Amino acid sequence: SESSHAEDLALRSGERQRLATNVLWDLDDDVIVVGAAGAGKSCLLRMGVLALAKRWADGSRVHAVPVYVLAADLAVDRPVQDAIAASVNADLSRIGSPNSWSPQFFRDAPAPGARWMILVDGLDEVIDPDQRRGIIGKLAGARDQQAAPYQLFITTRPLTDPELEAVSRWNLKHYDLIGFDSGQLEHLALRWFTALELPDPYQAAAQLSLAISRAGLKELARAPLMATLLCQLFIDN
Question: Rounded to an integer, what distance in angstroms lies between the CA atom of residue 109 and that of residue 98?
Fold first, then answer.
């Protein structure tokens, strides 16, 4: 259900052009995606991991290997490769995996002609603004190293002016996550209701859309997290 949720997300570039999120995984640029609370930032990153891993598994030519890290794990006073390795190993430990990776593993390219795509989640969840700016500086510094094997992909809620200034010095491609329209909401609901084997998922999706409109919740339902919760509430009652 999370991947279905993420497939409905859409982006707006600096030129205000609306784009599907799947274009992100084919870019060669460093990227920052900004979205409000519940806009689907973490789901987007998980979708990126799944999409790129599937390409590798299928034997497709891929320019990047995804590595999901929490921004808070990069706030520590250590080289960026050490912080990445520690974050990945903590994730592996949580799922009971016996594997672990050394910092050296992330200092070299993952494969000929490929880079690590470092997917940095939750920059805004680092409370201290100095730490946030430090993380931005650390990532920019790592990317600027000669022959650095990294492509950087950062998600965050809207940044403060000093952080925007720090980011503006770094040539990031900027996108905004935009909320659902009514058609996307019905599409999301239809997939939920079909997967859960409701007797008539099309009618249920239409009923949910009507109920949201009558309750004055249309704007709230534009947030993907709230739309998902409303789908589940509708199913329960």
Answer: 23
